[in-house]
Design goal:
The complex is a heterodimer of chains A (about 625) and B (about 325). Chain A is α+β, with helices and mostly antiparallel strands and about 625 residues long. Chain A has 17 helices and 24 strands. In chain A, the strands form seven sheets. A five-stranded antiparallel sheet of chain A has the order 14-15-13-18-19. Chain A has a four-stranded antiparallel sheet with strand order 2-3-1-4. Chain B is of the alpha+beta class. In chain B, the strands form two sheets. Chain B has a four-stranded antiparallel sheet with strand order 3-4-2-5. Chain B has a two-stranded parallel ribbon with strand order 1-6. Classes of the chains: A alpha+beta (about 625), B alpha+beta (about 325). At the A-B interface, helix 10, strand 21, helix 14, helix 15 and helix 16 of A face helix 4, strand 5, helix 5, helix 7 and helix 8 of B.
């Protein structure tokens, strides 16, 4: 009666092997490493970069344990932190030729020491949270109202232009918070204007009202359009943050959307919060200027002459010099959007810009007067300018929609659009939560968590073995198996392990033993009531199962509530807690039964089981059930 | 080894009224302290800045306090944390001052007065986050209560659901009462511990209720009180052992987990101890007052000796 069919043992063995494999990387620890990734969308990390890195290490005489291309980054694993710093310098020197304008991010990191065959199985150690490895955590609140106001402002400009084009006379357009108000002298004009709104401004909804002697049309942004605008603003801010954080040289930054209007930034290993905050809060500016095309400027561009008076020399992204006039035509404030696209006639890749009303007016005037000349778009960051693109003006551009095309690949169009957009934040942001954890505290926290789990586990296991003898040993093995499974599942999911997570691990082990206590007590009770050894094991397990299931469900309800409503540390706790309950049901019931069956199941004439003393009240004497 | 050699059923319910009055008094005391003293909420809930600074030698709290006060921050709390060399500084949320700068400013001032000061941890939370966390915490509590009640009502009967939830909410309030009385810091991990305890100690009630149901089926001549006494007596050994095991883990956290896990482990300890008490004396007693009877649990299939596997009331037994 206490035998498992072969397939159940197969399941157990598979769980053991898979669990063992995926938990294994956690035991190898981590080595110092240097990680190289691209700082810009235009630079690529590929095999040639790998060769460069290898050559650099060779000339510096540094022996690396591993140099490998992993996705979009190169990872170099090294023996010690001293070598790590040396290697970082050597690689930095080889790859980053212009310190002011780095193409690559060379950052210090930690890399798992697990052998290559494990890594090829995608078995990686658990990802340690900031409280265990040190670093900075920010939560930023995006001011969505400001994004909507900005959008309403630019729409107001568009409305003005459209009404003029259609020759609809109005007596004033104004923006009031997020709504646009247009006044008309008579009703027919208002109706005509309404038609224009319906035709050209899909994002706006209108309402009209009599306002004294005049008629007022109030247009507001539709809720679905508002949602889209907010979504775009958030995405754009995330892109901008990505670009900026690249400069900090952080190996594995986390930049994530949280909720509808928040962004979480986590920078492991960064200690300099002041610099990090500075970079997050910085604003880049975009400027549109004319290219100086005089003879002196031409020669200056080729590097043979002086830069003429009233002009400046900037480099474009390929390193080509461009001489531009000092006078600024437009700034990034007038640019509302930049998207890559295709020319409808030539099918060439293009970058499409949208300008606001003021920008449109200036742009029209400038382009009318300068057909055939070049115009440069510059991005200034940290006071350093770079020419993003310098196209030739072909015709007068009036509608506020600018198309840049010619000699661009799709990738280049994408990059340029990104740069133009990323130059500025779509909406202002505010830091609403900030946590910094020093590296020593992180290491200490790992130790504390590890000790809590280890000592707690040993104490429980020792008690179980003493109290329940051999059954206690089985229970302890099942508990160890539970820990193994939990670590393996967390590693597989690459869940972030935090200190509360480690606490949850300890707590789950303490609770998981409950199932085994239930089973063992029940088996004892069956023995006490005079059941035979085999029957006692059988009914003990069967009857305990329903209770175990019930009690785990209630614990799981609490865990799920924490998962659903918790944030930050609570969520880290809840993830481990919930997973631990699941693995405990498998290990404490299915697995421990397997072990018991393996030991006792084949003995047909089993007289006694080693489950400690079974005391019988009727005789008043304790029977040793061994 | 066998710790519990119980010959006769212990008459747990004989003094149920006394225990219930004790519970009520403890509960009222907890509520009283919650209202008069209030919870000492952590920075996560109140908003503000928290800094943990460590010095090479035992820190002079007075000097630290005056250094920080010179910067013009009001209501600054400075206290030792863990060892004499570690200092915890708490700055309330301030309007106008970009809160993110606060910690940088304070750190610079501390470094200037004592170069050995080094930052271990800073935490800044804006006021809007704090309110949200409190709201989310209450939502989570409501979710757990409703979820567990529905589950118990379906699995057993509404009287049990009410009894279990009253018993365990009484635990929760008492844990919070302790935190209010001793002014221990109530942080997010503590909240997690409280909710985990709620789910955990309901287990206890479930085990006892399971046994009560089984007894109603088995011993048809016993009175309700006798049945409850027997159920508690036969599960008490398991109750003490499992809670003991869990407590060993928690104790290990209390000893080795350091300051961060201290209050978390503390909340769990109180929760586990009161969990035993409330399942035995409160939950079963309330179920008794609510008047559980055989007919509530054994519907129609009283005659059946063997447990039908398809029976939704087929009980778990211990």
């Amino acid at each position: 009666m206490n035998r498992y069919p072969v397939w159940k043992y197969v399941i157990i063995v598979i769980a053991l092997v898979v669990g063992g494999l995926y938990a294994l990387p956690n035991f190898f620890g981590e080595s110092p490493a240097v990680q190289v990734s691209a700082a810009k969308a235009s630079t690529k990390v590929d095999v040639s970069t790998l060769a460069q890195v290898q050559a650099a290490l060779k000339t510096a005489g540094i022996e690396a344990e591993l140099v490998a291309l992993d996705g979009a980054s190169i990872k170099v694993r090294l023996g010690s932190t001293d070598v790590q710093l040396k290697a970082k310098d050597a690689i930095q020197k080889a790859l980053v030729t212009d310190a002011g304008n780095p193409g690559y991010v060379v950052a210090l990191n930690l890399l798992s020491r697990s052998p290559a065959w494990l890594t090829s199985l995608h078995a990686a150690p658990m990802y340690l949270g900031l409280d265990l490895r040190g670093g900075v955590h920010f939560m930023l609140q995006v001011d969505m109202q400001a994004a909507l106001v900005k959008r309403a402002e630019s729409l107001a400009g568009d409305v003005r232009t459209s009404l003029r084009e259609k020759n609809i006379r109005h007596s004033g357009i104004s923006r009031n918070a997020q709504t646009i108000e247009v006044r008309f002298r008579d009703m027919p004009t208002l109706t005509a204007a309404k038609a224009v709104f319906q035709d050209q401004f899909a994002d706006l909804q209108t309402a009209d009202a009599a306002d004294g002697a005049e008629f007022k049309l109030t247009a507001s942004i539709k809720p679905e359009a508002a949602r889209r605008i907010q979504d775009q603003a958030l995405k754009q801010n995330i892109t901008t943050l990505h670009n900026r954080i690249n400069e900090l040289g952080v190996a594995e930054p986390v930049i994530q959307q949280q909720g509808l209007d928040r962004i979480v930034v986590q920078l492991p290993g960064v200690q300099d919060t002041a610099k990090a905050k500075d970079i997050l809060g910085r604003t880049a500016t975009l400027e549109v200027r004319m290219v100086d095309e005089s003879a002196e400027a031409r020669s200056a561009e080729l590097g043979t002459g002086m830069v003429p008076f009233g002009a400046e020399r900037y480099l474009d992204r390929s390193g080509q010099a461009v001489i531009v006039k000092k006078q600024v035509i437009l700034t990034g404030e007038n640019l509302t959007d930049a998207q890559p696209g295709f020319d409808s006639q030539t099918q060439e890749p293009t970058v499409n810009l949208n300008l606001d009303a003021k920008g449109t007016r200036i742009f029209r005037d400038v382009t009318r007067e300068n057909v055939g000349k070049r115009m440069a778009i510059l991005l200034f960051e940290k006071g350093k300018g770079e020419v993003v693109t310098a196209p030739v003006i072909r015709t007068e551009i009036g509608g506020g929609r600018v198309q840049i095309s010619g000699r661009m690949t799709t990738v280049e169009a994408n990059d340029t659009a990104l740069l133009l957009r990323a130059g500025s934040l779509a909406a202002p942001m505010e830091i609403i939560e900030e946590t910094t954890i020093g590296p020593s505290l992180g290491a200490e926290n790992i130790n504390k968590g590890f000790h809590s789990v280890t000592w707690g586990f040993l104490a429980v296991a020792a008690f179980m073995c003493l109290y329940y003898m051999l059954f206690g040993v089985f229970s302890s093995i099942a508990l160890a198996f539970n820990l193994l499974l939990l670590v393996a599942v967390l590693s597989m999911l690459q869940a972030t392990l935090t200190l509360p997570g480690m606490a949850a691990m300890a707590l789950v082990l303490g609770m998981a033993i409950d199932s085994n206590v239930l089973i063992n007590e029940r088996v004892r009770e069956e023995l006490r009531n005079g059941a035979s050894a085999q029957a006692a094991i059988h009914t003990g397990y069967d009857r305990a199962w329903a209770t175990i299931f019930d009690s785990n469900i209630t614990t799981l309800i609490a865990g799920l509530a924490l998962l659903a409503f918790g944030s930050g540390p609570v969520r880290g706790f809840a993830v481990v807690h919930c997973l631990g309950i699941m693995t405990s049901m498998f290990s404490a019931v299915f697995f421990s039964r397997g072990v018991v069956n393996l030991w006792y199941g084949r003995q047909n004439r089993l007289k006694t089981v080693s489950i400690g003393t079974v005391w019988r009240p009727d005789t008043g004497t304790a029977l040793k059930a061994e | 080894m066998e710790f519990f050699r119980i010959r006769r059923d212990i008459p747990f319910m004989r003094h149920a009224l006394v225990f219930n009055i004790i519970s009520l008094l403890t509960f009222l005391a907890a509520v009283f302290f919650l209202f008069t003293r209030g919870l000492h909420l952590s920075v996560e809930f109140t908003g503000g800045t928290l800094m943990e600074v460590t010095y090479a030698q035992p820190a002079d709290l007075g000097a630290v306090r005056s250094t920080v006060a010179k910067l013009g921050f009001a209501d600054v709390q400075v206290q030792n944390f863990g060892t004499a060399r570690d200092v915890l500084i708490r700055l309330p949320a301030q309007k106008g001052v970009s809160s993110a700068q606060q910690s940088t400013q304070v750190m610079a001032a501390l470094k200037a007065s004592d170069a050995s000061a080094s930052m271990r941890r800073t935490e800044f939370v804006g006021p809007q986050v704090g309110d949200e966390l409190a709201a989310d915490g209450l939502k989570a509590l409501a979710f757990v209560v409703v979820g567990i009640m529905i589950y118990l009502a379906v699995r057993f009967e509404w009287k049990f659901a009410v009894a279990a939830i009253i018993a365990n909410l009484h635990d929760v309030i008492i844990i919070m009462g302790f935190f209010a009385f001793f002014q221990w810091e109530f942080s997010l991990p503590v909240l997690a511990a409280v909710l985990a305890v709620l789910g955990y100690s309901v287990n206890e009630s479930v085990v006892i209720f399971d046994r009560i149901r089984e007894n109603f089926r088995r011993y048809r001549k016993m009175t309700t009180v006798e049945i409850i006494n027997n159920a508690i007596t036969s599960t008490i050994s398991r109750t003490i052992i499992t809670h003991g095991s869990t407590q060993m883990m928690v104790l290990s956290m209390l000893l080795f987990g350091g300051a961060t896990l201290h209050y978390f482990a503390m909340a769990l300890t109180i929760g586990i101890l009161f969990g035993i008490y409330s399942s035995v004396f409160v939950a079963a007693a309330i179920a008794m007052w609510l008047g559980i009877q055989r007919e509530d649990l054994v519907k129609g299939n009283v005659a059946k000796k063997d447990i039908d596997p398809n029976d939704p009331n087929a009980g778990a037994t211990v």
